[in-house]
Write a structure and sequence with these properties.
Blueprint (H helix, E strand, L loop, with lengths): L1 E2 H9 L7 E5 L7 E2 L3 E2 L9 E2 L3 E4 L1 H4 L8 E9 L13 E5 L11 E4 L9 E4 L9 E2 L10 E3 L7 H9 L4 E5 L3 E7 L3 E2 L4 H5 L4 E2 L1 H12 L3 E8 L3 H9 L6 E5 L10 H7 L9 E2 L1
Parallel strand pairs: 1-19, 7-8, 14-17, 14-18, 15-16
Antiparallel strand pairs: 2-13, 3-13, 4-12, 5-11, 6-8, 6-9, 7-10
Helix pairs in contact: 6-7
Length: 279
């Protein structure tokens, strides 16, 4: 018998990438990228503030302490999405919000907590931020950088990166359609739970687990339902898988008198690569 890794390898050697399609960005969650993605621009496009505070020259605050604060003249206030109208010179500061472009002449953002929050002038009471709290231009990526390679699974983080470079659609491999079939006279779906309460049946819980796993893995589950322990029922259910890329069956493959799954699959033209696994 094959080991589990050997069986997995034998399954995977027969798996091939599916066709490529272009989908809206948000529809690509859980799919697999089919193109190389390069940055069309540099991000951030300019040095910017990593804090709410004051853009200053680091040399001006090197000696600032709570006992001997440094006083600077405030020139203006710059919000995120706006640019300063003037440079910062020695003895000056510009109030700045997180993400706003750093003014010319500044190399430091003093966090507002280390100041008195002044509007016309500000007292800087700590030198710990000297030459800090600045996100440099191109810290995330630069124009021409490869951001994602073909074969990359697309999760939430990858969609965020694609949105940041203006991609509203993306080329992906289409989702596999995965047919799922349970079998056994003892099984019912959840809507037949009254039979479970009566002590006659059990819920086909494997089917629900497999559907959830397929969806979680980026596939499209196709529920074939529960076949009875009868070759005709198994054949009928399996034939509903036409057009699917993969079929997952649960039960009916051992050596019991009513285990018909293998012979029915063979009668439908399947080429069995292995049967039992040492696990």
């Amino acid at each position: 018998m094959l080991t589990v890794p050997e069986a997995s390898a034998r399954i995977l050697e027969h798996i091939a990438p599916l066709a490529i399609e272009r989908v809206p960005l948000l529809d690509a969650l859980g799919m697999v990228l089919a193109e190389s993605v390069r940055a069309p621009m540099t991000l951030p496009a300019w040095d910017n503030s990593a804090m709410d505070g004051y853009a200053v020259r680091g040399a001006d605050i090197d000696s600032a302490t709570a006992e001997r604060p440094t006083t600077l003249r405030v020139l203006e206030t710059v919000a995120a999405g706006r640019f300063a109208t003037q440079p910062v010179r020695s003895g000056e500061a510009i109030r700045i919000m997180t993400g706003a472009p750093l003014p010319d002449g500044a190399d430091t953002v003093v966090r507002v907590e280390d100041t008195d929050g002044g509007i016309a002038q500000v007292l800087v009471r700590n030198a710990r931020d000297a030459r800090r709290n600045v996100r440099p231009r191109g810290e995330d990526f630069r124009e021409g950088d490869t951001l994602l390679e073909p074969g990359a699974p697309l999760g939430a983080a990858q969609l965020g990166v694609l949105a940041s470079i203006g991609r509203s659609t993306i080329d992906v491999h289409r989702r596999p359609r995965v047919a799922i079939m349970g079998s056994g006279d003892e099984l019912v779906d959840v809507d037949g739970f009254h039979e479970v309460l009566a002590g006659r049946k059990i819920v086909s819980s494997n089917g629900y687990t497999l559907q959830a796993l397929v969806r979680d893995s980026g596939g499209e589950p196709v529920n074939l339902g529960v076949a009875t322990d009868d070759p005709a029922s198994l054949r009928d259910h399996l034939q509903r898988a036409a057009g699917c890329d993969l079929v997952l069956t649960s039960a009916g493959v051992s050596v019991g008198e009513f285990d018909y799954t293998r012979e029915v699959i063979a009668s439908l033209g399947a080429d069995m690569k292995f049967w039992r696994v040492r696990m």
